[in-house]
Amino acid sequence: MRDEWEHVHTDYTRPAQRPAPASLAESxxxxxxxxxxxxxxxxxxxxxxxxxxxxxxxxxxxxxxxKDIAAIRTSGELHVSTGCLVGALYCSPLTRQREGLRPHNxxxxxxxxxxxxxxxxxxxxxxxxxxTKGVNYLHLGAIHLRTYLRxxxxxxxxxxxxxxxxxxxxxxxxxxxxxxxxxxxVGRATNAPEFIDQLAAAxxxxxxxxxxxxxxxxxxxxxxxTTPETKGYARVGELNNWLYKRLAFAAVDGMHRLFDLARxxxxxxxxxxxxxxxxxxxxxxxxxxxxxxxxxxFARIALHPSQDAATVSFRGIDLSALRYVAPGLVGQMVxxxxxxxxxxxQLYHCFEKAKALEAWEYWNHEGIPTPFNGILPKGEIGIHxxxxxxxxxxxxxxxDRRGFLQPTQEITAALTPHLxxxxxxxxxxxxxxxxxxxxxxxxxxxxxVPTYRSPIKGIST
Length: 461
Hints:
The protein is α+β, with helices and mostly antiparallel strands. It has helices at residues 2-8, 28-37, 44-47, 49-56, 69-75, 105-113, 141-151, 157-185, 192-202, 208-224, 228-235, 242-251, 268-278, 286-302, 319-325, 327-338, 344-366; strands at 9-11, 60-66, 77-80, 89-97, 100-103, 118-125, 133-135, 381-383, 391-399, 405-411, 414-419.
């Protein structure tokens, strides 16, 4: 179990060491070298303001936004959310300056686009320098699968059969593209525009591909951007989060209301237009980047490290073999499929708390009170609710006319190991292949307190 959680985390201060399937044309180390050394903003991977704050061992200040400040005051509790941080209070960094606390550009985005929320300042005093090991939700598939297999008797026989059928149907529909991605990963390059169109067609069948597609583009934009805005954020040690937010909202109607990456599947022509709308200079190279990067990541994420990517095919393979050959992909599909069962509202805590408990134990062992989203250290950071060796204080805050946060009132509230309640609306299964409304709420909007009304739609990654 410890090895699985180690595999999920990326330490940006050490060379890449994760085991990978055989025959890949490029290694994780090759990509790390390119991303850090050959992109305009790659130096921020190791030397962002957030990572420097982690390794300093000094008190950290984080921004959390909530719609439920009255309930926090009443209950005296802060609850954590699941998603890309598994089980943590979702925050973004604050930098202490003489004028006040300056929000990270991600936090500034959250406050600007969520006017109904109350900003909170949280002070965390760690016991030691914090390892720069971020949790990468794209690598959680094997843990999702193991958790499901451990607790599958909580489902009825019919529910388990439905789950198996949905996973096999999705893989059968997308098998051609999945095999194409593996061929690209081992060096047999295909035409980039055709690859993008095949990827777009495969997303409704395997919604996880929409998440992978979006994260690859987010990485491309943040690391390659050279706009004055991006350079300004880089000067203060931050990757530019506004880039991928603009991309998502331009790509999918209603994304600002329901952040749903399973609906993210632009074809090649639209992709080029979308990137041109965000930063024109980056449009010409985007298709080839996605072809190379997504193929490599897919092979590493989907397949068990014991496999040879050059010999695997998704055509005609049975589910028991798939669980062994591609546990990462099957786990990601199971995780997304099971959330749309009518009874998942009752089953949610069974599956998600099990994973959160393992993550909390791992973070305690590794000395991580503030886990962060480790796809890139872009500013998504959380607070681990049961870290035994750090002190936490919280205040409500107001933003002054210069953009700095000032504390207004200290809040007596304990961070607790309770997961905020929610469930996802049922999916119209007849439309699964053509339109897949898998639901993902913007991570910052998850409730941070016990809810006494009917939970609303939403889930994070």
